[in-house]
Each structure stands twice: as structure tokens, then as C-alpha cells.
Fold:
Amino acid sequence: MNSAIAQFLRYMVTERNASELTIKSYREDLFSFVDWLQTTRGSVPQPDTLSPQDLRAFQAALQAADYARTSIARKLAALRSFYKFAMREGIATSNPAKPLRNPRRQRTLPHVLSDTEIGSLLIAPPGDKVDGLRDRAILETMYSAGLRVSELVGLQDGDIDADQQIVRVRGKGRKERISPLGSFAVKAIAAYATRRQRSDKSNAMGRQAPVFVNRFGNQLTTRSIGRMLEKHLAVAGLDARTSPHTLRHSFATHLLDRGADIRSVQELLGHKSLATTQIYTHVSAASLRQVYERAHPRAN
Structure:
């Protein structure tokens, strides 16, 4: 089983060009299954000897351990992909994960900041220090273009066209899209660029150098963005539930609130499926309901 998983992960890198984050998720999900087999059986059987009943037992164990439904669905998806590969390579003759049904997704509305809250957050970083200029540019860019945090840290100098006010974004599955960039974000990036200090390694990369760097002059990590946001949330007195992805949620919701059509928002977010974008129509409807209940004399 372990060697088959290793083969599968190599295939995902070399043939499918999967991102490091995707590979990390597959590795963790598949080896959590291996660990479960080792614990419950005392050994790890060959892939071809497992049945749908074995995988249902694994799914039941995850549910009993209070794993989130999304986490369970992701692990089952990893097993399905692994077994498709195993069948193609002759490692297995069937896909025991195929008959399994994912747990019903519990749709929760994403946390969104209001216009006023966004404004408070964007001015929280101090404008007289390099770190403050960088953090303000990061927040402005994420909100302006609706970026995922992984897309933000991957931005390179050559991706930004300040004259046209657009940015090239490398999204999930290495798919690229072009997103508009607001004037506030463009100005914030320019102000930061005049003060940033990058490492020799970054400088040698030319237009492929990272836009946003840490105090050592190297590319930021997604975790460092999270820590940065926590600091400025405290300064602005905003909800601690706010995450970097909240800026993306807020971007989409504010566009729809102001009349943008959902297809355009789908393109701007880089969503493959319109169904993924439709969650924001529910957020907008919820905000409209609140306005209605506050303003209409016979709403309550």
C-alpha cells in the first residue's frame, strides 16, 4: 500500500502537474487511511484486497471521531483518485471507494466584513514603516482582486501591470486568470515597492521575483499572512473569526450587492463551477433581508 501511494503521488507531480498543496493533502489523507488500517488490523493489506465495506468502516470511524463533513469528503475523494490510478496501473482491479457516498455538505454562509469594517482593516497597518506598507498592500490586493492567500503569496513582479491595472493570477490547478486591480491596490503596491528590501536570491529572479517578501527578503508563506491579519484585526477591533479568505468572501459579496452578475463574479473568482459561486447570492440575500427588516414598517 505504501509503495502504491508513493507511485500515485509521483504520478500526480509528474503527469498531472499538481501543486505542492494538493500533493500534501493527498499524502495526509491517504496515509491517515493507512494509519487507520494499521491500528484496526495490525497490518496494512494490499490495495487489491480491500472492499467497499472496509472503506465504509473507515468513513464511519471518521464520523465517530467528529471529523468535519468536508474533511471526510476530501479523504474519500483522495481514495477514489488513488484507486483510479491503481486500476490503470494494474495495482488494483476495482475501486472500492467509488460506491461510497460523501456525507451531505452542511452549507454555512461565509463570514463577510461590511464596507465599514473593510475600511477599518485596510487602514490598520501603519503607513510609516516598510512592514506596514507591505501589509496594507497585501490587504488591498486581496480585497481588490478577490485572491486566495496562496494566489497572493505566489504573485510575481511580472504579474502586475500597473498601467492597465490588472494582475495575472495563478489559481487552483495552475490555471491562470486576469483580474482587475483597483487604484487603491495599485498605489499601495507602488508605495511598498519603493521601500521593500529583497534578498539577493529574489533580486536575481527579475520579473519572477515575489512581490511580497518577509523581513529576510524572501517570499512570504500563507501562514505568515494569517499571522499578519490577526495582528491588524486586533488593532481594528474586528471579529477574530476573520481569515484571509474572508477578504475573498467580502469581495464577491460586495460585487453582487452592487449589481454585478454572478457569471462575472465566477470569472473573477476563478471558480470552475457556478454552483461554488452561488453561495454568495445567499449571503447577499441575507444582507438584503436585514436591511428590509430594519427599514420596512411592516417587516416584523
Summary: The domain at 115-294 is CATH 1.10.443.10 (hpI Integrase; Chain A). The radius of gyration is 23 Å. The longest strand covers residues 166-170. The first helix runs from residue 2 to 14.
